Amino acid sequence: MLTISQLAAYAGVTVRAVRHYHQIGLLPEPERDRSGYRIYDAGTVVRLIRIHTLADAGVPLARVQELLDACPEEFADGVQEIDKDLRAEIRRLRGTRRRLARLAAGEHLALPQSVVDYLDRLRGLGVEERYIEMERDAWIMIAAQVPHRIEAVIAKKHEELDNPDMVRLYSLLSGALDWSADDSRVTEIADILERLMISAVEAGEVGADGFDDQFVDLLDSTMIQSAPAAARLLAILEERGWRGWTRIERVPADRLNTELPPS
């Protein structure tokens, strides 16, 4: 007859593990001697070794009992089922690791991969990181507002980068955060934007963007606050008959004449 310490040693487990298996019912409580100590036999050693082998192989303790009592065919089926569950869990954990790795890069938080790729393309064009961070924050808000449209919007943005005017625009905007309001390059940005908008209107590409007016105002105000020259840029565009930044619109001639002061 064995004491609990001897049993644990023979099975290669700890006394604490033996007591835990007693507590959850995997290892039946043995008889006790006259002094009240548990006494174990060889059969208990075998059962404990089998429990330990299954647990060490990754079998959940909640399923160890059914495998211990199963016939060979049921045992094989049970192991296959557990293996299937483990493979599903491994896939889930791998997905979690991939998401965590993307989050470590910073931009993947709340941004789809397509937007991250677009921002990386801007970096490849030499756009400064400060401007990319500002654009990234805008895309985070946009992606949350129109998640069903973001892929199409980004695809269009990639097409626009094939236009030399758009590349030049980003080159200017990249350094514009520190420009003074009277910097002559503000007019060049306005010239490029006007050419781009005229082309978009002629191609019939100006339409609903899916944003409500309050959201458009939020994005526009963020842009205006980002650089001293931003307000002047919008003023130049409005003098030419265009209004807005997030949603640039043609101002009707009659409203332009009545709303703008004489230049």
What do you see in this structure?
By secondary structure, the chain is mainly α. It has 2 domains: 4-103, Multidrug-efflux Transporter Regulator, Chain: A, Domain 2 (Orthogonal Bundle); 107-259, no CATH class. It has helices spanning 4-11, 15-23, 42-56, 61-68, 72-104, 113-124, 129-145, 150-160, 164-175, 185-202, 213-226, 230-239, 253-259, and strands at 242-243, 249-250. It has a two-stranded antiparallel sheet. A hairpin with a 5-residue loop joins strand 1 (242-243) and strand 2. Helix 6 runs antiparallel to helix 7 (129-145) and helix 10 (185-202) packs across helix 12 (230-239). It is rod-shaped and about 105 Å long. It starts with a helix and ends with a helix. The model is unreliable at 256-263 (pLDDT under 50).
Structural class call reads mainly alpha
Largest sheet: spatial strand order: 1-2
Q: Strand content of the residues, in percent?
A: under 5%
Based on DSSP secondary structure assignment, what is the total number of beta strands? 2
Biggest β-sheet strands, sense, barrel:
2 strands, antiparallel
Task: Supply the number of helical segments.
Answer: 13
Give the N-terminus to C-terminus distance in angstroms: 107 Å
Low-confidence stretches: 256-263
Total count of domains: 2
Provide the helix percentage: 55-70%
Mean of residue pLDDT values: 86
- C-alpha Rg (nearest Å): 34 Å
Shape: rod-shaped
Order of helices and strands: HHHHHHHHHHHHEEH
